[in-house]
User: What shape does this take?
Amino acid sequence: MKGRNMTRWRDPAKDPRQAPKSNLITAQGAERLRGILDHLSRVKRPALSAKVGEAAAHGDRSENADYTYNKKELNRVIARIRYLTKRLDELQVVDRLPANTDKIFFGAFVSLEDDEGEALEIRIVGHDEIDTQKRWISVDAPMAKALLGKEVDDEITVQTPRGEDCYIVTAIHYAGA
Assistant: This one.
């Protein structure tokens, strides 16, 4: 069984995946998660329950692929509903602007410029809202930690896998500001 179900041992004290995640989320992110939970609870779960019941009525469940697949899918949806319900209870919704909008805080859209003059715009959001296509990064990410509290024209240095990257903050704005 070499390689199967085997993972590399990591020291829990040094493993970055074990670091506690912040419980912050924007109002839009919380609304999106509530929408997903509502869809799973009201639409997806009842539909899958009906499919499982229908497949079970056909007889022998051990050889019924339709029953097996839908049962697994139903269990996956139930687990996701349970996770979202628990997660929404522990999240803290940040629905107001910071007192000083000239500094970078949670929810900020930040424009950066690197050493070669290339522009980069990111947004600092909660762990549950990360979107690489939109360049929304977690408040727990090294880049976000380096940016928090900075102002326009401040320089930051971030340690990346390819070395140190330096950026200059060129603009800061917040949604709804």
Notes: The longest strand covers residues 163-174. The mean pLDDT is 89.
